[in-house]
Amino acid sequence: MSKPHILILGAPGAGKGTQSKHIVETFGVEHVTTGDALRANKDMDISDMDTEYDTPREYMDRGELVPDAVVNAIVEEALSSADGYVLDGYPRNLEQAEELSEMTDLDVILSLDVDTEELVDRLTGRRVCTECGTNFHVKYSQPEEEGVCDECGGELHQRDDDTEETVRERLRVFEENTQPVIDFYEGRDEFASIDGEQAPDDVWADVKAAIESRT
Ligand code: AP5
Ligand code: MG
Fold this sequence. Notes:
The protein is of the alpha/beta class. The chain is 42% helix and 16% strand. It has a single domain (5-29, 83-214), classed as Rossmann fold, CATH 3.40.50. The chain has 8 helices and 8 strands. The strands form 2 sheets. The chain has a 5-stranded parallel sheet with strand order 2-3-1-4-8, with helices on both faces. The protein has a 3-stranded antiparallel sheet with strand order 6-5-7. Helix 4 runs parallel beside helix 5. Magnesium ion binds next to helix 1.
């Protein structure tokens, strides 16, 4: 049987990256994430795409969306070579959702629901491993040794867009552009709404069950 096509939706900080890691380990799919792909290419010259700014960095550090043409190309390329995937961070507006429907079909659509003030707390306290990408949190998920990754010993850092000001702008952009995408998918048989405010292991139990019952 071919591997599942899974879409994970949710606001900044809802736990998409955290849950995607479990999905990859359990279902053997690829993690296709526009956020990580863009962070790895933050200073790429995109000026020939007729964009307002010349690099992804200038959009990301403001909490704005990188232009559709740039992210559509990243996703199309990644999905064409993936045998099963969890797609995280895309689509973020209705135009991208339309684009995605022309690229692939979806077996499971997950939406992680978390209250806004909790999201601000999670994001401003997040620390990420510069080597393996594992997430920690200064209060909720502390590493054994401060600043050092439990998984690989790599150095932990704070993402450039995790300052409170940028976090609030990211949440505003989510409400305006991405909430309509969730509303668009809701009601389909593939769609499952997950309570993302539970402890990470409990969220994972719900995510796993939702995938298993749809594949
Ligand atoms: P992206 O990297 O996708 O960021 P995001 O959507 O803002 O989401 P995050 O990665 O911040 O949160 P997450 O849901 O993955 O949560 P996590 O698991 O880390 O995008 C960044 C930028 O790139 C955008 O702003 C935009 O500029 C650009 N971009 C990306 N895609 C684009 C697109 N399609 N179009 C245009 N532009 C695009 O968890 C967060 C924290 O909470 C961690 O510390 C974690 O340990 C903790 N945590 C997780 N789960 C729990 C739990 N259950 N309880 C308590 N704490 C928890
Ligand atoms: Mg993420």
